[in-house]
Amino acid sequence: MEAVKKVYDFLENAGTFYLATVEGDQPRVRPYGAMLYFEDKIYIMAFGKTNATRQISDNCKAEICAFKGQTLRIECKLVEDNRPEVGRALVEKMPSLKEALGDNGENGVMYYLKDAKADFFKFLELAETVTF
User: Fold this and answer.
1) What is d(CA 101, CA 123) in angstroms, rounded to the nearest whole number?
2) Which helix (H) or strand (E) is 98 found in, with range?
């Protein structure tokens, strides 16, 4: 749990992170910012019926990258979890999303990071690796 919280805190402090998915043999990268620490897991949100949600459905392997004084790179699987309490927790954390997401996040898709390997880099040198 300590590793998960360390990664979450880094992402939260960075504000924006980049999610890489795969479409066929082509990588796709996009900026994200909607995330949540819930039930000892890191969740990210994608709006429903987008290229990203389709790509994740086809191949749940993803990478996340963020920078804030050092670089964090995460290899993981994204697991869909659209329980109303997860969506509601994100809307409570980020009320500006309520109009677009709905009261329980029903217009978005919530994913948690599974089988994650997170590498922290200082300059070009690997400083630490954590798994969760």
Assistant:
1) 37
2) helix 98-101
What CATH class has 2-131?
mainly beta
How far apart are alpha carbons 108 and 106 in whole angstroms? 5
Please, which residues have CB within 8 angstroms of residue 55's CB and are 6 or more apart in sequence? 21, 22, 23, 28
Helix (H, G, I), strand (E, B) or coil at 32: strand
Beta strands in 1-132 (DSSP E): 17-23, 26-32, 35-38, 41-47, 61-67, 71-80, 108-122, 125-131
Question: Which pTM value belongs to this model?
Answer: 0.93
CA distance 126 to 77: 22
Residue 76 phi/psi, 5-degree rounding, is -160, 175
Distance CA 43, CA 25 (A): 26
| Span 33-84, pLDDT tens digits | 999 999 999 999 999 889 999 999 999 999 999 999 999 999 999 999 999 9
* 45 close to 105: Cβ distance less than 8 angstroms: yes
Q: What is the CA radius of gyration of the chain?
A: 14
Among 116, 117, 56, CA closest to 82: 56
